[in-house]
Structures are given as C-alpha cells and as structure tokens.
Design brief:
The protein is of the alpha/beta class. It has 9 helices and 8 strands. It has helices at about 5-10, 15, 40-45, 65-70, 75-80, 110-125, 155-165, 170-185, 215-230; strands at about 20-25, 40, 55-60, 85-90, 130-135, 170, 190-195, 205-215. Strands 3-1-4-5-6 form a 5-stranded parallel sheet. Helix 6 (about 110-125) links the parallel strand 4 (about 85-90) and strand 5 (about 130-135). The chain is globular, with a radius of gyration of 18 Å.
C-alpha cells in the first residue's frame, strides 16, 4: 500500500502525489451550505467515490452558463491552478438556455460550442484533460409518465464539439433521463428537492424543486458520471474509483 504524506506535508506539492479533478458547472453541480441541506449538487458528493489519490475541487457555481462562468473569471481561476495530468469536467446548459438573459444565453451550435472550446483549449494548454458532461435532466414527465427532454439542442451541440475536438463526452443527459424514466414521476421525488411543509427545518414551508437534488439524489447522479468515466476509459482517473 502506498504511503501518502499528511495533509500539511502535501499542501505545497499536492499535485506531485495526487490528481486534481476540477469541476466547472452550474447549480446542479455546485456545493451548498449546511443551511440549505439537504440540497446538494453532484459535485458536492463526487469526492466520496474516489481514493485518496484524487482531490476534487468543485468550482461550479449556481446560475452560471458556459459564457458567464468565463466572463466572471471563474475559468481563469481554474486555469491558474490546474496542472499537467489533472482533469477539468465541464457541465453547462441549464443557464445557457435563458434567452431572456444576454449575460448568460448562448446559442447551441455557435456561441455555446465556442465557449466550451475555451475550456477545452485552456485545460489542454496546461497539460490537463478536459471532459465534457452534457447537462443533467430536470424532473419533467408527460401526462402518461414519460420522461421529457428539457435541454433542447444543447446536449447534441456538446457532443458535436466533443467529436470535433476529440474530447471525451459523458452523456449525463441521456443517463439521467433513463434513470428518471425507470424511477417514474413518483420515484424521482426522492432524487429532487421536493419536501412537504414542516418536513425539514431548512424549508419550513416546503419546497417543490424539479431541477436541484437532495443529497441522496446527488449521489445517484454522481454515480452516473462515474459510469461515464468507466465507459470513456478515463485512465488513470477510473483506476482510483472506490470499488
């Protein structure tokens, strides 16, 4: 068994011993304060699935699109830290769709792809490995219980840029839709932030949120991302997934 240095000893040279996975994304990925529990993004629980060789730095932030994340300097902040052999996971789409907001809106096959390319190029310039993650589905069903698509052309556009740039794409849109279809309208209530009044002290009036996850749901979504890591043969990262 390898000996890892103590946290104090390794802070200065953490990348020499470990691989860092940076997450760029929106509210479905981001971390939340205890005061908002049980709300959680899948990035918040992602580190639970890896051994000590992997450090997860979740830089995802609520309300951001591929455009606004860059415009606010958040990508630059990641690129200032990321090192050779690290990974950059990129999941956007939810807020890129907001046509009424020019600070966030991108058009799938033009500006969305061009912003995603900035993440790809930035990671590669530092010797890091970009990974695209299509946006996780919302909880939306037809009257007869069929899971709906809620992201229009964005997943297809992301897959297209992935193919053009030879970047691995984890199709979280398709994976989450399949899971939600399997669970159905009733079963998915345990995935999303759906709470009755009085059920949780942080949400005294209850909450009906079909976009964000409860912690247990965030773990299930993280497991879909892990499935994608295995399918995409992302080595060495896949070798450090806890059995």
């Amino acid at each position: 068994m390898e000996n890892y240095p103590s946290k104090a000893a390794s802070d200065g040279n953490i990348h020499k011993n470990r691989i860092t996975v940076y997450l760029a994304g929106d509210s479905t990925v981001s971390n939340y304060a205890d005061s908002l529990a049980p709300r959680a993004g899948w990035g918040q629980v992602f580190n639970r699935f890896f051994d000590d060789k992997i450090v997860v730095k979740n830089e995802a932030s609520s309300g951001r699109s591929s455009k606004s994340f860059i415009d606010e300097g958040r990508l630059d902040s990641i690129l200032n830290q990321i090192e050779k052999g690290d990974y950059l996971f990129i999941q956007f789409g939810h807020n890129d769709e907001k046509m009424e907001d020019p600070t966030r809106y991108t058009e799938p096959y033009t500006t969305y792809k061009s912003y995603l390319k900035q993440y790809i190029d930035g990671a590669r310039a530092k010797g890091a490995k970009p990974v695209l993650v299509t946006p996780v589905e919302r909880r939306s069903f037809t009257a007869d219980g069929m899971a709906r698509d809620s992201h229009g052309e964005y997943p297809a556009a992301m897959k297209e840029i992935g193919q053009e740039e030879n970047v691995p794409v984890i199709d979280l849109t398709a994976k989450s839709k399949a899971l939600f279809q399997e669970l159905g309208p009733e079963g998915t209530k345990d995935i999303f932030l759906l709470l009755d009044p009085g059920e949780n002290v942080n949400y005294p009036n209850g909450v009906q949120d079909n976009t964000h996850f409860q912690e247990a749901g965030a773990e299930q979504i993280a497991e879909l991302v892990l499935e994608g890591i295995k399918e995409s043969h992302l080595v060495p990262l896949r070798n450090h997934i806890l059995k």
